[in-house]
Protein 1
Amino acid sequence: MPANSSDSTIQTVEMLVQKRFGFTSQVRQLDGERDWNFLVHDRTSNRQYVLKLFAPSEDPAFVAAEIAVQQRLLSFGLPVPEVVPTIRQEFIFESGIDGQKRQGRLVTLMPGSVLAKRQVIESDFWGNFGGIIGNVSTALSGFDHTAIHREFLWDLAKSEAVVRENLSRETDAGFRDLLQQVIAGHAEAMNRITGPLRQSVVHGDMNDWNVFTSPVDPAGNLPQSVTGIIDFGDMVWSDSINDLAVAIAYAVLDRPDPLDIACRMVASCHRQWPLTPDERQLLWHRVRLRLATSVVMAAKQLVDDSNNDYLGISQMAIRRTLPGLLNIPAVFTHAAFCQACGQALPGPIDNARRWLDSNTGRFHPPVRGLKSMTPLLVDWSVTTGLFDGDPAELQTPLENATVQLLESAPGSPGVGGWGEPRLVYQAAQFGTGDGSPPRTVHLGVDVFAPAGTEIVAPLDGTIHSLDVIDLPLDYGGVVLTRHESSSGEPVLVLYGHLDPASIAELKPGQKISGGQTIARLGDRDVNGGWIPHLHLQILADDFGLGTGFPGVCQATWKDLWLQYCPNPAPILGLNPKTVAHVPVSTETLAGSRRKLIGRSVRTSYRDPVQLVRGWMQYVYDENGRRYLDAYNNVPHVGHCHPRIIEAATRQMKLLNSNTRYVSRLQTEFAERLTATMPDGLEVCFILNSASEANELALRLARTATGGRDMIVNEHAYHGNTTSLIDISPYKHNGRGGEGPPDWVHAVPIPDTWRGEYRNNDPDAGRKYASHVSLALQSIESRGGKLAGFIAETCPSVGGQIIPPADYLPNVYKLIRAAGGICIADEVQTGYGRMGDCFYAFERSGVVPDVVVLGKPIGNGHPLAAVVTSHAIADAFDNGMEYFSTFGGNHVSCAVGIAVLDVVQSEGLQQHAQSVGEVMRSLFHSQPGSHPLVGDIRGNGLFWGIELVRDSSSLEPATAEASWIKNQLRHRGILIGTDGHHDNVLKIRPPMPFDKMNVGQLVEALGEVLASL
Ligand SMILES: Cc1ncc(COP(=O)(O)O)c(C=O)c1O
């Protein structure tokens, strides 16, 4: 930064640009420590450039080298700035500015924005980045320049010494210890490499401020990619792998699943510039080393410049990220990199399998006595039937059920769990700390047996290590035994949940013989707090972790972990299939679904979700990942609400039959339902789906009026039957639709934000209603006769619309005057969702003639209802019997009563109102300020956020809405999109959704929006 960054400096630079490059410009100062950088805007061509004035001390040869490297990379088609020649056709010029001579050069400005500023990065971007690094390395491998052979403090090849020398500058003892681990790991890895590393010129600083990226293209047409690499001031002759290492180090800062990012970068870098085995082995150490270097260098700089707040802040991300990188064993990352490069996995994997195969039948089962008994499979998977209820509190019920199961087959030990995703791992140590899903997949086999059961060595060997890990849900006592394969390679066996007292005498290195008792199973108070059982795991390689080797891994990485931890069934004398969890991947299911289910039945989200379990406002996928459900209104009182399940199962055990028999349940449900309605709505029809209910409503209207014509809202949806498609413009005017039949007349949806009459028009409600008059005239002119008007009271499919309060009163008046019936489709809005009322029609002070209820009233059980007046119901009783086989059956009615009970006794309407108030204020204060957000509307737990690209033209941001929905899905939050342009984010969660959930949703939404 110039000492004097005043207007006069800017003017001087503008004159300099005119003199050297011949154009008039507008100049703005940019950041820069040693060098001065200016953004130069060519007033004539509108192009933008960056002018660099090097520090006076800068070596001219190095400046020339920088230009030569840039030219070389450009010749390889790489995105680096072009150097602009002066009028005299020179790339470098010299100028006296601020009383000092400085060299300067002008380069083109890179498009896009720096990686550090992009909050959301598409996962495919990392592949593109890795490929670019591979190409840079290829280009630089054939290049040299004397000025680049220099001593440079930031040269990663020398960083181990730099960190070691400056270690004491780190004042936090815990963090100093981490830095120590980084250099120790690096030193050890350097000892293992087999020959000299490849060397070349390296850029040296591809950090996230030096890499430009294109924005996200929500439509997915333009993949996000690297648009520029800048700042060649750290170039040095060094180990070629260092560019990839530096790039990964900064790419993973504060991002979930750093190893996934690294693997994507490695895979595509390798395709362009194949990595050597030594480079793969060293890479993760270099990644960590770079961050450690940054930490100590910042500490060093802070000594000289203690007021530099920026230095402190830029270090925060490193300090947050580095501990997580140390938690991923470097040997495992090496394996992941080998897999990413399509190379054989390192380590003695095959060896462990061979050891198992060659000793099958010779093992002493580690749980004494197991061999002779028939084992009982204990399923602790996410879908286990051993417990129901809240997965956040499953341990006690799951273990109690396990005890009961074991007691049902006395003497048979329970076994199971290899590769099984589970919900039981709910302690902090199973979280990843980086926002990626927690560790859920079990890497060993569990054998359930009483505390005190003797654990024996399966074969001759030695004690490798032992420990007592006294953390809740950890191992308690744990032992590793070491055995040797026929080729002399070690294979380790891990035994967890032991009684610490029983292993107190063991010593690492101690010889043991097959069949010898080495420990006893621990009880709950000493085994990590579990029901007594043995965790038995085989390790083809312990990655140097000993007893700290994980027993559970993240689902994303399970295939790799399970290769190192083969199925221990042969040791137990069991068939491996008995204890192996057989997953069915979402991809496989999606493939079969495409073959077996009609293709017009679509899935939500670009990457479909396989949901297997639910509880209240949460759902869980097959790997135990929890999603916050901000979308599904059908499980109204909460997924798997116990009172609903209890009512349904109780009745299923008694009787389920149809409406041709008199039933207390049926009349009670009808009585309870009509009690929620205004006077005059006194008769019910109980059905299975809202489509069936709307179909009946249509027939009621026609029979009662003798008319046939219907007036509907534009973009409405009322169900899937032939007649309902006819009255649903959303379908018949959409893809594959054939337009409306002549008896259907659509009137504008009362959308006061986008529609013809808007919020600023106090008469908007009446004006929208006046379109009904036009429709009535059209019916009359074609000689038709009105049957009625149907509308969602607050159109949800139409985009979560809240009509003006006087809209429906005016419409109903017109319809009734014309002899028609008013039907309120309350399928989405009924049962308290709107917060301030039980049914949305109450907001307008109207009483419909027919109310249609569906989705929420059965909480997932197929249940719907039509409620109407005696007059209309009687008119329908014209001699023809109305019969629906499943409608109003005993079980459905029991469920219907239970749902009403829960809604009323848990005060869910009031809850929706108070949570909705928090939504209103947080939505408006946070996402509301983003330029894409056009309108935020709703009440209670019924909200729409309409996205537009332009606030005056209201161009719908459809692709952006879809992109946001998919991004939130990846962050574990489910929402939908809807509206005529599908540009409205639809938030309509199960009613237990609470204020904390609002905070989670708003935070994630804010982050995702910020990247657009
Ligand atoms: C407003 C409205 N009415 C009726 C239906 C039809 O409901 P079902 O799919 O239960 O037949 C739906 C379904 O989405 C709806 O949203």
Protein 2
Amino acid sequence: MPLTAAQQTRLRDDMRGLIKGDVRCEEVTQQLYATDASILQAQPVCIVCPRNTDDVAAIVKYAAEENITLHPRGAGTSLTGESLGEGIILVFSRYMRRILQTKDDTVTIQPGLLRRRLNGIIGQSQNRLFGPLAGNVSSASLGSILARNGAGIHYLRYGLPSEHLVSLTVVLANGDLLKLDRNSLIRPIQGDGSVALAQEIAYGKEYVYAGKIAHLLNSRTGEQLVESANQLHVNRAGYAGHTVLQGKAKQYVDLVPLFAGSEGTLGVTVEATIKTVSLPQRKSAAAFFFKSIFHALEAVSVVQLLHPVLCELIDRRRLTMIRDWDSRYRPLIPGDAEAALLVELDAGTLEAPKSAEECKNNLKHLIDLVQTKKQLCFQTLRVNTEPDFQLFDQVIRRSELVLGRMRQSIQAIPLFDDVAVPLDAMNDTVSDLLTLLQRHRITASLSGHAGQGHLRIHPLLDLAQPDRDSTLSSLAEDVYATILQRGGTISSEWGAGLLKSQFLPLQFPHLISHYKDIKETFDPQYQLNPGRVIPQENHWTTFLRRGLQKRGQPPPNPVWESQTRLAALQRKLSPDQVEIQLKWEPAHVFESAYQCNGCGECLRFDRQSRICPLFRGTATIEYAPRSKADLLRGILENDIELETLTSERAKEIADTCFHCRMCDIECPAKIDTCVLAFRSKAAYVAAHGLPLTDLIASRLDNILDGLMPGSFLVNAAMRNRVVRWLFEKTLNIPQRRTMPKLSYRSYLNRIRWSPLRHRLSSEQTDKPRVALFVDTFANYFDPQLVELAVQILEHNGFSVHVPLRQLASGRASFAVGHAVRAEWLARRNVVLLAELIRQGYKIVTIEPYSASCLTKDYRHLIGSEESELMADNVADFCSLLLQHHRSGKLQRDFQPLLYRVGYHAPCSGLALSVSLTTDVMPAERLLRLIPGLGVQRMERGCCGMAGLWGFQQKNYRQSLQIGIPLFRALRPADIDFGTSDCISCCSQMAHGSRKRTVHPIRLLAMAYGFCPPLR
Ligand SMILES: Cc1cc2nc3c(=O)[nH]c(=O)nc-3n(C[C@H](O)[C@H](O)[C@H](O)COP(=O)(O)OP(=O)(O)OC[C@H]3O[C@@H](n4cnc5c(N)ncnc54)[C@H](O)[C@@H]3O)c2cc1C
Ligand code: SF4
Ligand code: SF4
């Protein structure tokens, strides 16, 4: 039952007094933890981020006293609503994510540590890893992997996570701490499980619980024993009681496998010691393509003969969508494949690799068997090199994520996507399922870890149908009945969660009462994660995520209906200004807010990804892109008040997006987080006005215009320590930041009064015509760069026009949520530039960020025909020249440049180039054409500058922290200069690495002989 405001305040104050960690009860935070990657939703009363075991024990005891439920949570990417709940959410991924101890073959960790992060660290330092992965490869926390003990993608290589557990420390519902060590198993006395106090004192609580559980297990009925024994090894539904009693006479009790896989319902893990293994060798893998899914399933049994370590099934729908996702897959994945099997054979480990000959022979033998002898597949593709393996892994990864890209009202629903059957029943089961789905008139997508009998079935449904709940329920019942008839399990990895627990009695009609006894032994009041494993009264459909049916649907209103409510809140702006701030382009906001499926792909820390710099820096899940969608969805669904957007907490969340646009390419569902954050910030601005520093940032072009005549004084002042100190205190400009030198005259002013003006104005010509968009940094701080750009363009046969009435792109206004100014700038620029486009001009920007603003932000802000026109006719300088080169027109009269430069691809440039996997960026490719110039790509993530963001004192430290990997990569002596096509990135790179950094335009100009070489 929801608490009153007074109860919440008391709860928060009580808990803050008890623990060192964070306690948050405000609406915004509740909303951010109300969903995960499942189709369910539950609004918690409070979110607690414990800092240590004492915090956990204190909260657990307090929750028991107050009769509030507790829900442990890692990254919140469960597909069955496992960590959702209406009580207190215990978040481990914030603080309890450390590696406590590393030994040769074990590591002791806290539960909030992500598996990917652990493996990144011990992979580098020890050439080892924690093998099992029952979870989302990007974001699964170790606490959740152990709490679910699922088979996972690496099951064939490593087995279950519990098989790698050495010890576990858990806090029970009454606050007791159990230290369970598998090296010293407990041998309880026989009897009814009761233990005298003296024994409890002598042997500890572990002894007491071991006795109770041994007694329960020994009292199982014959039917319960049969059900227990008949489980698949990969079963993940229910408690794993059958592995608890050990020894010849079953005299020892091992409680670890009971807690592993208990989905946080028996105890809260606070520490675990897990085994690590040597890094695997990867030499033998292949993709097999089939004309029928049944041929693929038949091939699985052939593949088994060679003991694969990975065997993944992907169906036609997913293959097609993967081909569309990235053009690199088109030549690799045949268009007519109905299914694919991706198979990897064992090649040993780094310490003990198998010989290359043996691996080659095994793979050849497998291909012979599947393709030639059995004629099951029509095409195979061998995976040989490291880049091949990267593509191979990426296809598997994308097969899990790709359905999130569907934009129709028919959606792929993760409802029963984790069933498993014995291997020899796969073919018949799939045949039964297809008949069943046909009967329900539903199509579905099918994939899975086929090598272990696992199937991921996603029905494609329109959830806007009036009979939605009954359709989902009856469908689930029928599918589970089919699976169980074939001797399978309704969960082999994800766990039962809120979604499936109600179906558990179907699988375990006799054992379910035994499971209740186990639950009540550890948690008699059903305090810990209730509703999971042991079904609860509420039907699972009552937890269905609100607004789920709105994915892919058109938005309800042309203009955000509650503008007037927020307008009433405004204090500093006039009503018409407020109206602009809140005029959401509903289609885009609506689509982005609902399309986020919580997949957690944006919770990444690894180097292969850049999403999301501020989340990475703080490891605060609330700052990840996902939270912006959660927040706006809450508003659209009326789960939280619109006015909440004007709260400091909402601003804090929105401010963590600095508009880098990496979500555009890295979020599989293509969520436009920038727009969501911008709208949220704009609402805050509507109510509170802009802070002075944000006002300065968004009006920088006007201010610089005013300062220009005294630029020498400004530059001198910027070198004076006292003035800098004063600026830091008043204007939030960090003292230590190296500031770019203000030019004595802006570029646009120079040409306005120059004889060149006529040459750079519109003229009739046969040459390809380009209009140069200059933007703030180049205009005021580096006019020479624009002059060089003009020279290069003209040298390459372009007719260049520089429109004098152009304004700043408004990048800073977008970043701070100044919607009035952003829209004002956008409208004027669009009118001017669209007219030029109609006259045959292509708009060319000096920096990719400006191009991104003109094409993406303007489109969503204005949504006019003219802004659409812009979207198709704007290019950044380097992309334009590269196109020119590709059509054979680029002038190659370069002089050699004998330098080695480190190239950093700006985030906005990557986002424009469509994919992070684009191996070479336009600027990089152009620079490589210059003879003698060594170009090294520095793929070290974001530089941390984000336009003016890093120029603010409050962000200075974080800005440098984000850039550290890049600065380190630039420092070696063999790199002479840095280079990047974003001017603010150049400034940050030079500041952080102390290495001169220039725009590629300058290097190209040097090579053409338009300016002197660098010294
Ligand atoms: C795209 C995608 C692909 C996926 N693929 C797979 C897959 O192949 N295999 C698979 O098994 N899963 C998969 N999942 C599901 C999901 O990733 C896993 O459930 C993952 O382990 C969740 O990790 P988490 O940290 O987000 O856990 P959460 O969702 O936060 O929690 C999961 C469970 O662990 C419990 N838990 C967390 N911490 C503790 C603790 N300290 N003590 C006790 N209990 C705790 C929670 O209470 C909850 O029951 C996938 C999910 C997505 C979105
Ligand atoms: S924002 Fe994108 S990547 Fe992040 S959870 Fe949502 S859909 Fe997944
Ligand atoms: S645009 Fe960049 S800063 Fe904003 S949420 Fe996405 S990745 Fe983070």
